[in-house]
Design a protein that fits this description.
By secondary structure, the chain is an alpha+beta fold. The protein has two domains: 110 residues, Glutamine synthetase, N-terminal domain (Ubiquitin-like (UB roll), Roll); 319 residues, Creatine Kinase, Chain A, domain 2 (2-Layer Sandwich), CATH 3.30.590.10. The protein has 13 helices and 16 strands. The strands form two sheets. Strands 7, 8, 9, 10, 11, 12, 13, 14, 15 and 16 form a ten-stranded mixed beta sheet that branches. Strands 1, 2, 3, 4, 5 and 6 form a six-stranded mixed beta sheet that branches. α3 packs parallel to α9 and α10 runs antiparallel to α12. The chain is globular, with a radius of gyration of 22 Å. It starts with 5 loop residues before the first helix and ends with a helix. The model has no long low-confidence stretch (mean pLDDT 95). The structure holds adenosine-5'-diphosphate. Adenosine-5'-diphosphate (ADP) binds next to β7, β9 and β12.
């Protein structure tokens, strides 16, 4: 049970128990991309390094060769990156027969330095900054998604019309109803457990067909690794069972969207550096400055929580999806919610990211903003209460991709934390998502104007 050592993998390959190794990088969209190795070749040589086309960190959801990136282009010849397996991430892949899985870091092909806009490298660089300050970040993400009766192939062939969900009405905490999801979710929980991913639970969520997967908090990079593995396993198992699992944040205008809240706390050794028993809410001075930072810079980094056009369709008043950069004590209408107040589990939950979030990027930018808050000694404003959607005076989170693109491109804070190269790269990604969308003539326009215009 649990993670695999390289020696154990070699034994299992020699014994014929494992014949395939998935070697994966994490792309800008937070997907696992890579190769299926014959395990004999992996333990012989590919464990050291393998290669992938460098457009993998400059493409969109549809794998288009997007022009305008400095890092790679047709003119630059679309060369290779090195995929270097991080052997500490080696795990069995028990939902597949005879298979193991490993995550890879993405390195420059010539000088083997980390590629700066690689999401895993961006998180690693902020974790190192925190280490230098004497802290470890512990994070968790919640994964919401919808399960559908039909498979992706059937749904695509129906023109995305055949979209009955696996459950027929709101399944929030509904144990009898969510029994229908168990065909997918029991194998998911058991596979994650056997991989050493500390799965806590699944639960029915507050919409027809919606489910949530909770994984226990851990050090930031591990927590992000758990997220991408968890999402991958959910989608794979759903596919294998003839269903579809979708992580699009807003699949239907009348249905609640799917989020991916991020929980965060800083630790010194085995103690939470966020906890102060003397404070009325149990929040240390460090936690207050950190939280002031993540709130102050939320408009700057919103793009990294919401990269797609569809991500912004989820931000609606009265829907549990936040629109304001304020914090609250256990109030789900604010962008940031204090959880575990007055206890050692005190932490801040960021409620902005949708289910399409790339967890490495979301965690990296929030750590950078928290570090900035600590460095600036920022004061935390009092918590908001009541219905935050109705409060006019507080900072709004950019509500469109265009607005988030502007705050991203013009953020001195992000440029200082990640470098111009990285911020220019993601600004191009934001521009492209907008350009691709603007070029489409939608069903809505045709239905609205075809006759009446
Ligand atoms: P709720 O049900 O209110 O959303 P949970 O108790 O399910 O809250 O916790 C949500 C997530 O927060 C879980 O993934 C949990 O592991 C994580 N979590 C708990 N304590 C901490 C902490 N100190 N730092 C970061 N995450 C934490």
């Amino acid at each position: 049970m649990g993670a695999l050592t390289f020696d154990k993998l070699k034994e299992q390959v020699a014994a014929g128990e494992i014949d395939t190794v998935l070697a994966c990088i994490v792309d800008m969209q937070g997907r696992l991309m890579g190769k299926r190795f014959h395990a004999a070749h992996f333990v012989d040589s590919a464990w050291e390094e393998s290669h992938c086309c460098n457009y993998l960190l400059a493409t969109d959801l549809e794998m288009y060769t997007v022009e305008g990136y400095a890092a790679t282009s047709w003119a630059g010849g679309y060369g290779d990156y090195v995929m270097r397996p991080d052997l500490s991430t080696l795990r069995p892949a028990p939902w597949l027969e005879g298979t193991a899985i490993v995550l890879c870091d993405v390195l420059d092909h010539h000088h083997h330095a980390p590629v700066p806009h690689s999401p895993r490298a961006m998180l690693q660089s902020q974790v190192k900054r925190l280490q230098a300050m004497g802290y470890t970040a512990k994070m968790a993400t919640e994964l919401e998604f919808f399960l559908f009766e039909k498979s992706f192939d059937e749904i695509r062939k129906s023109g995305f019309k055949d979209l009955d969900t696996l459950t027929p009405y709101n399944e929030d905490y509904a144990l009898q109803l969510s029994l229908r999801d168990e065909v997918v979710l029991r194998p998911v929980r058991n596979a994650l457990y056997a991989m050493g991913v500390p799965v806590e639970c699944t639960k029915g969520e507050a919409e027809t067909g919606q489910e949530e997967l909770n994984i226990k908090y851990d050090e930031a990079i591990l927590a992000a690794d758990y997220h991408v593995l968890g999402k991958h396993v959910v989608k794979d198992v759903a596919l294998m069972k003839g269903h579809a699992a979708s992580f699009i944040p807003k699949w239907h205008r009348d249905k609640v969207g799917s989020s991916s809240h991020v929980h965060q706390s800083l630790w010194e050794g085995n103690d939470s550096a966020f906890y102060d028993p003397e404070d009325s809410l149990g929040m240390s001075a460090l936690m207050k400055s950190y939280c002031a930072g993540i709130i102050k810079y939320a408009p700057d980094y919103t793009f990294f929580l919401a990269q797609n056009i569809n991500s912004y369709k989820r931000f609606q008043a009265g829907s549990f999806a936040p629109t304001k950069a304020v914090w609250s004590v256990d109030n789900r209408t604010a962008g940031f919610r204090l959880c575990g107040a007055g206890s050692k589990a005190v932490r801040m939950e960021c409620r902005i990211p949708g289910s399409d979030v790339n967890p490495y990027l979301a965690m990296a930018v929030q750590l950078a903003a928290g570090i900035k808050g600590i460095e600036e000694g920022l004061e935390l404003s009092p918590p908001a209460d009541g219905d935050v959607y109705e409060q006019g005076s507080v900072t709004e989170i950019p509500s469109t991709l265009r607005a988030a693109r502007e705050t991203l491109a013009n953020s001195a804070f992000l440029r200082e934390a990640f470098g111009d190269e990285v911020i220019d790269h993601y600004t191009r990604a934001a521009d492209w998502e907008q350009e691709a969308y603007d070029a489409v003539v939608t069903d809505w326009e045709i239905q609205r104007g075809f006759e009446r215009a």
